[in-house]
């Protein structure tokens, strides 16, 4: 039906929509075969002079006609997409009032393409989802305010050492004059999110790449090297493999985090990064992150399974973390609080950290491996209580709340 409407507007000289401001066109699943055909949009400028918002879904379109008053553009393409950065940029040159741009399905330019440079002075948000990493080159040709919110997602699995040069330059824009100060950086698996100081405090940069487990550093290292880490207050790391980032690489990153106050490690983030904190002063370098005040450990392995019952101090994660806390304490740079939530750790290990007085430990008292045992223990206790028995037996305590406070989420 959508084809017929636009064809009617295009070829019926008496048809027009001079007051139309918002147009949404969708090809239904039933009409999927026709969606692969080029869509006729050449009549839009003449017949819809007031168009402000345009939303196209499942429509094969390679370029747009000039739409000088457009403020919001959303195009969702599937894998038959023929829209390339060069043709999109050529269309955007005629829409200087654009405020929001959302494109899904962009594909790489043909070899030798020379895309034009486009200024979008009113842009507040841009989101590009692409089948090809090379399509990220579109950001090199766009000029927009440094306060704009920018997102890029590559949906295909990357391998080896992909060319991230355009995304590295995109990260570098946060160093430009007028850019808001970076406050939080989060890298969970292969998704990098950068939030800046407000108003409002919001995600200003989001880059999502499918690197595959064990290969996250191929993206994290070059992208983080271009970010203004010196102003970051919060750093969140998660779903990295133990060997993903070397000690030397962690030292380089952490040395730049001069204002860092809060470090969040979650989803099996490697505690090996604390090796960088320990090795840096041993090598004559300044202590990394000298203003670090609190650490959140969520769903991390602190005591490895084989060391849980007898030799917790021989567990590498616990050992390096304890050494890190001791070094900071003795260097008059103590970490004020450590929050431990749903981590693999024993009560004895927590008691040892508490007894050392290196920091204030706030633990939820939960050992993930004992979750099943807890319910059995509670059943036993209820049964004992029903017989009038007491419940003052020994053994490891099953914590139900935070021991010293509340985990910050």
Automatic annotation (TrEMBL):
Residues 364-409 are annotated as: Disordered. SUPFAM superfamilies: RNI-like. It comes from the Eukaryota. Transmembrane segments: none annotated. Residues 395-409 have a biased composition (Basic residues). This is F-box domain-containing protein. It comes from Pleurotus ostreatus (strain PC15) (Oyster mushroom). Residues 366-384 have a biased composition (Acidic residues).
């Amino acid at each position: 039906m959508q084809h017929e409407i636009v064809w009617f507007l295009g070829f019926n000289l008496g048809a027009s929509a001079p007051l139309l401001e918002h147009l949404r066109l969708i090809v239904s699943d039933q009409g999927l075969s026709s969606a692969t055909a080029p869509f006729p949009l050449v009549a839009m400028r003449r017949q819809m002079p007031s168009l402000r918002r345009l939303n196209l879904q499942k429509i094969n379109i390679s370029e747009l006609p000039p739409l000088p008053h457009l403020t919001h553009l959303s195009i969702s393409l599937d894998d038959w997409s023929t829209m390339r950065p060069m043709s999109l940029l050529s269309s955007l040159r005629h829409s200087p009032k654009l405020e929001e741009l959302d494109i899904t399905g962009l594909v790489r330019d043909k070899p030798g393409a020379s895309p034009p440079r486009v200024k979008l002075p009113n842009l507040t948000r841009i989101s590009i989802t692409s089948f090809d990493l090379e399509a990220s080159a579109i950001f090199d040709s766009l000029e927009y305010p440094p306060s704009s919110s920018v997102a890029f997602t590559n949906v295909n699995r990357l391998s080896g050492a992909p060319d991230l040069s355009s995304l590295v330059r995109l990260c570098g824009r946060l160093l430009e004059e007028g850019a808001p100060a970076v406050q939080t950086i989060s890298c969970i698996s292969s998704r990098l999110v950068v939030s800046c100081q407000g108003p409002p405090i919001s995600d200003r940069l989001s880059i999502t790449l499918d690197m595959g487990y064990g290969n996250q550093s191929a993206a994290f290292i070059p992208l983080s090297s271009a970010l203004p880490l010196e102003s970051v207050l919060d750093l969140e790391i998660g779903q990295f493999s133990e060997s993903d980032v070397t000690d030397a690489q962690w030292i380089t990153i952490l040395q730049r985090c001069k204002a860092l106050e809060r470090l969040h490690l979650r989803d099996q983030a490697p505690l090996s990064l604390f090796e960088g904190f320990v090795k840096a002063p041993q090598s004559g370098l300044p202590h990394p992150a000298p203003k670090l005040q609190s650490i959140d450990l969520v769903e991390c392995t602190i005591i490895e399974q084989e060391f849980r019952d007898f030799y917790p101090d021989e567990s590498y994660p616990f050992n390096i973390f304890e050494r890190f806390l001791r070094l900071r304490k003795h260097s008059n740079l103590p970490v004020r609080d450590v929050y431990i939530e749903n981590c693999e750790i024993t009560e004895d290990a927590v008691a040892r950290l508490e007894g050392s007085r290196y920091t204030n430990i706030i633990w939820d008292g939960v050992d993930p491996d004992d979750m099943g045992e807890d319910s059995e223990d509670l059943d036993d206790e209820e049964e004992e209580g029903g017989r009038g028995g007491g419940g003052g037996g020994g053994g490891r305590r099953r914590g139900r709340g935070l021991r010293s406070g509340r985990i910050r989420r």
